[in-house]
Amino acid sequence: SNQSDMSDQAPTVADQARVRMFREFDPQANEGDDEVPDPWYGGGDGFRRVLAMIERTTDHLVEQLPDLMES
Fold first, then answer.
1. What does R_g of the chain's alpha carbons equal in angstroms?
2. How many CB atoms are located within 10 Å of the residue 70 CB?
3. Which sign does the torsion angle of CA 9, 5, 16, 50 carry?
4. Cα-flanking dihedrals φ and ψ of residue 39, to 5°?
5. pTM of the model
6. Does the pLDDT at position 3 exceed 90?
7. Could you say which of 18, 39, 65, 67 would form a disulfide bridge with 46 (CB–CB 3.0 to 4.6 Å)?
8. Of 61, 51, 49, nearest to 23 (Cα)?
9. Residues 7-54: pLDDT tens digits?
């Protein structure tokens, strides 16, 4: 629903096509693995795994920003 909510706020169809899921930038994500899990139910290890996921995905996203801004 997050992707749909963001697409609904995009002013044009072209902008809607640019909406991407955060995990699309995760170099370790598998096809269809686009959700950041809720770490609450994974105990301390769950929080560590989600933090590592967010950090590596953010690093990769930042590397991609110049190319994304051109498209």
1. 14
2. 6
3. positive
4. -75, -10
5. 0.80
6. no
7. 39
8. 61
9. 999 899 988 888 889 999 999 999 888 899 999 988 899 999 999 999
Contacts for 28 with CB less than 8 Å, ≥ 6 apart: 53, 56
**Could you tell me the two tokens for 23?**
């995990």
Distance, CA of 19 to CA of 10 (rounded, Å): 8
Residues near 40 by Cβ (< 8 Å), separated by ≥ 6?
A: 46
Amino acid at 28: Q
Q: Quote the CA–CA distance of 21 and 51 in Å, as a whole number.
A: 17
Neighbours of 21 (CB within 10 A): 15
* Token pair listed for 2: 């997050």
Cβ proximity of 48 and 58 under 8 Å? no
